[in-house]
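In practice, a research group might receive sequence data for several interacting partners and want a quick structural hypothesis before committing to experiments. The following worked case mirrors that situation: the sequences arrive first, and a predicted assembly follows.
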Amino acid sequence: MSWETVIGLEVHVQLRTATKMFCACSAKFGDAPNTNVCPVCLGLPGALPVPNERAVRLAVRAAYALDCAVHPRSIFARKNYFYPDLPKGYQISQFEEPLATAGALACVSPERGAITVRIKRLHLEEDAGKSFHDRVPGMTAVDFNRSGVPLVEIVSEPDLRSPAEARAYLTTLKQVLKYVDVSDCNMEEGSLRVDANLSIRPAGSAELRSRTEVKNMNSFSGVEHALEAERRRQIAATERGEAIVQATMLFDAASGEVRPMRSKEEAQDYRYFPEPDLPPLVLAAKWLDAERSALPELPGARRARLATQYALPESDAGVLSGTRELADYFERVVALGADGKEAANWVMNDLLGLSPDGEALPLPPERLFEAIALVRDGKVSRQAAKRVLGEMLKARNDSALAVAERLGLVQVSDSGAIEAWVKETLAAHPGEVERYKAGEARLMGFLVGQVMKCSKGRADPKAVNAALAAALK
Amino acid sequence: MTDFVTAAREAAARIAACEAKGIHAFLAWSEDALLAEAKRQAASPSAAAGPLAGEAVAVKDVIADATLPTTCASRILEGWCSPFEATAVRRLRAAGAIVAGKTNCDEFAMGSSTEYSGYGPTRNPVDPTRVPGGSSGGSAAAVAAGAVTMALGSETGGSVRQPAAFCGVVGIKPTYGRVSRYGLVAFGSSLDQIGTLGKNVRSAARLLSAVSGRDDRDATSLDRIPLAEPGEAPSSLRGTVIGVPREYFPAGLHPGIRAACDRALERLRALGAEVRDVSLPHTKYAVPTYYIVAPAEASSNLARYDGVRYGPRADGGLADVRAVYRATRGRGFGAEVRRRILLGTYVLSAGYYDAYYRKAQRVRELIRSDFARVFASGVHALFTPTTPTPAFRFGENLADPLAMYLADVFVCTVNLAWLPALSLPIGRDQGLPVGGQLIGAMERESTIIRIALALEQALDGTAEVR
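A structural hypothesis for the assembly, expressed as tokens:
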């Protein structure tokens, strides 16, 4: 029996606002516990929520970036459940009339190539606090700094067909959301969280069978492994004749397995109803149009344009458009005077090599261009430039030329000096000179190398080539 | 020059006298607290110049203040001191008033007699064997007993007007959104409003003007036509059209209530008003609609009381967090509050939401349009009885919660429709106060206040009507 996997993802993304969704507390991650709290986000008696305009703006931006229909009128709703890190006993979210619906995200499936994953909905909500079960023996400690931080929940249709595909979707989603500056999308810091729904069905069938929800994944690879484990479990169970029970499965990264959450007495009924403390969220058409127009070029479009505009191979365009910062950097280097392929080469091979975590770009584009110009002007060799760049990281105020000079890497192009070295070299290798003149053209490489050695590497190889060629005529 | 300290001492003496009679209008007050208030206010030039300078104002215990506990008359908030003050309290202080103390009420404002308080009932100063009404019974009694001339109460389904009627004082419920709910402990969020009580129309109206206005901390508090200070009582009501909705005068209406209303209507006519018969056909659905919407919202609003962050927590040797919740809430909430939470949870639950909550919101819209239609037809205000009976005796309605709910039949329509309304004393029936209600169109508090001032001047609200 051949099985098809059906996966849908619910992704919660923290919006990059300074303050929380419904109060003026700082939304900053990592502060001492319970220091960014107030009556509103603690749910004290008598406190009331007031919506954060910037959060709405970022949510709308995310919705447009995902090609959603943004609804000018949406309704906040209460999602009611009891848990110690949910201070009001309900979460303010959106239910029947969410901010956005009917979007799509194009990504590349490892198995199927280019695919489009439909986005069912995107809505605004507030985060809960965080529970720690291992800080105090026998007790749970709750930190409410995170309570009230703005989130968007992005729900996909069950269009994904493999764990690897799910990972590709997440990678692309993160790229898009970072392009529009809506979130840091950092799973390790909790600014992006994933719940996955998985079911299986006979290959070729169109039915949707009973699914499980998989939680507690801390990285994109964790998502892939968790879904692989759950798929294996469901296939094995089904082949044994067991029915798949709708349940919540928790991923255990250490073992790579999924196990059912300790069962609760009954399924959760969230008793959603419209939030009476908040009027409907009404967004003016002009405001919405302005947000949509202000969207930066999205990754797919950027990649395509870089490829055509700068005549780059698709893979290079893909690397350079990986983040908006990198793409902007690349185009700035070109604007400063580098040629497309040259800039691509330098950015991908030299610049990215300098920043191991790949996140922060270590040098301003102007500085990189200085190094490029040095090579182009023949002042340093391409090889030597790597050392120059490395040194420029430490000596931030020195020009590339000054660094090169200090390192003694400035090439000599002076024809007098070069001719002297050429003469010295030819005199030292009369045999090779004869053999070259007799027709062994490849000995030119050897001779160039010898001249370079003679100059202790400082001669400009292009000038050496030219001088040797002239001297050997 | 306002002498705050003297005002504070005099208020303390009046409150002590009231409480010495066993009224139990207050849950938290002390002469020290009053004097501390007075000192703070005396140091503020703007307070001394404010429109309420030196007035001692009682505050219902569902309204947060940072200087006195806020228990909502519940054991689940026993000892709770709010770190912030309600906007309405900040505004009354800004107007120069001093907080006299926190008054008793039905637990979490759920009730019509103050018998559901977790700290013992309040007695009606006019007849101590009878209830003062509820849920703002403490505030109404404090005014009626002369401890204060003004008090803040709150309304969800008539909880300011009904006790005002039972105690023979004035109560005003503003248009929904006129007074900030920031700091009003939520019960039924789409219905709740802070209201005012006063010994006469002017006192209640002055307090309302002082606390009204848009507040950035309350997203449902909207820009309104600002509420000015009340003017002089008009000597004539010529040109004013008063509607009398027949649904509020059923055949079996209590004869004392009917007599008082007839007398009041006759005075209104004598003042020159045109009195017109009108109909609000969906009135009979108001109580059931209210008792779906309010408990539903309450079940959600009261979910936060779990002992985790504040309030007493029952956690000795309990198995898990759910056991802690059950014990804390089971012990901390009284029977009526638990009843309403269960009712509210039920009507919101899967399978029942459409039939109850969603349906109730639609009926609410019908009730609201009844009023809108009547006001659009040229009626300036409606006149009705405030309550179906005068104050009942302690224990009379405790055995049957439904009987207690029906006490709200003439007042809860107004909360459902977001309208302003006022109750003023229009006579006594065998010594018991009877209240007459004026209902205004949206944002038309000044209209009903004006009519009430005229009527108050034209009749003796303490006269026997039968």
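Before designing any experiment, note the following. The mean pLDDT of chain A is 92. The first strand of chain A starts at residue 3 and ends at 14.
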